[in-house]
Specification:
This protein is an alpha/beta fold and about 325 residues long. About 40% of the residues lie in helices and about 10% in strands.
């Protein structure tokens, strides 16, 4: 089964550990993606906060972009059937390839307060950006700053408008609830929460409230359900494949359809994955279980079709 996964931190880990994208000891590698039946992997470049919140993020992120470019060139040199997704035309051909990648940035601090940097990232292939990582940056407040009741800054609104113009997916994972509603009001294109779950099932501040889920549905956006144990269960040690199913089922009920959900694993960015989902290879038993709960049509939607449809709406 071809699987679209809308969030991982693998490139950042490969950079830090000097490992290869094709085969490695991390939670994701291309060899296992192909063994699963192929997939589109969002390659998130995580710029940690607070180290780079107000300076240095651009330089660090460029190092991660360099790692991504080096690794994808290696794959191409190996003769692998790789597609880098840059446009909606590319999206139309994703399923014809064994492996596709979409370059993303996690943490808008990577801009160092510069729209010029945003445009340069676009030219380098970035097509999705998480506006903020839980804390505060030049763009917005994150969930850790909820008490301040702050949302998008003036610069943040400029960033959203420029991402709309360029054709980049605006990711609201990690943003404060005030920031979320500001993005809903500001963005002229559908938005994405690449790795977030249902707050009503697990009241972690990173998860989405019911009104946010309904707004994403009305916005024609997308939510990638994540495998972070603490976002799945109140006691992360209880997180398992069934927990993932419960979040899918609940969010479909809230949204009233199965058209806006998929996966955002956060592999290589989570310290407490479900005990029976330890890496990309475990998509197989997960889908085996979900296939006992959902129709083949719904499985096709959440594995790849919803994500591809979303990308065609924004790129």
């Amino acid at each position: 089964m071809f699987i679209c996964d809308c969030h991982s931190d693998t490139i950042t880990e490969l950079y830090k550990k000097n490992e290869d994208l094709y085969a490695n000891k991390q939670m994701i590698d291309v060899e296992r993606i192909i063994a699963n039946g192929g997939g589109l992997q969002f390659c998130g470049l995580f710029v940690p906060t607070p180290e780079f919140r107000y300076g240095g993020g651009l330089r660090y992120c460029l190092k991660l972009v360099d790692k991504y470019l080096i690794e994808t060139k290696k794959l191409e040199a190996q003769g692998l059937d790789l597609l880098k997704v840059l446009s909606k035309e590319d999206v139309d051909h994703v399923l014809e390839h064994k492996i596709a990648t979409l370059l993303a940035i996690e943490e808008g601090g990577a801009l160092d307060g510069s729209l010029e940097a945003l445009r340069i990232y676009y030219e380098l292939g970035v097509r999705c950006m998480t506006l903020v990582w839980s804390n505060r940056n030049d763009i917005a407040d994150g969930v850790n700053e909820e008490c301040s009741k702050g949302g998008l800054t003036v610069f943040g609104r400029q960033v959203v408008h420029e991402m709309n113009r360029l054709g980049m997916a605006v990711d609201v994972s990690h943003i404060s609830t005030y920031g979320f509603w500001d993005v809903i009001a500001t963005s002229e294109k559908p938005i994405i929460a690449t790795h977030s779950n249902a707050y009503s099932l697990c009241d972690h501040p990173r998860n989405l409230r019911d009104d946010q889920l309904k707004a994403l549905n009305e916005n024609n956006g997308f939510v990638g359900i994540t495998f972070a144990g603490q976002f799945l269960e109140k006691d992360w040690a209880d997180a398992c494949i069934e927990s993932v199913y419960k979040h899918f089922s609940y969010m479909m009920d809230v949204m009233g359809n199965d058209n806006h959900l998929g996966f955002g694993s956060d592999f290589d960015g989570i310290s407490h994955p479900p005990y029976n989902i330890q890496g990309v290879q475990d998509f197989r038993p997960l889908l085996d279980y979900l296939s006992t709960k959902f129709s083949d049509e719904t499985i096709a939607k959440i594995t790849h079709q919803n994500c591809l449809d979303y990308l065609k709406r924004v790129l």
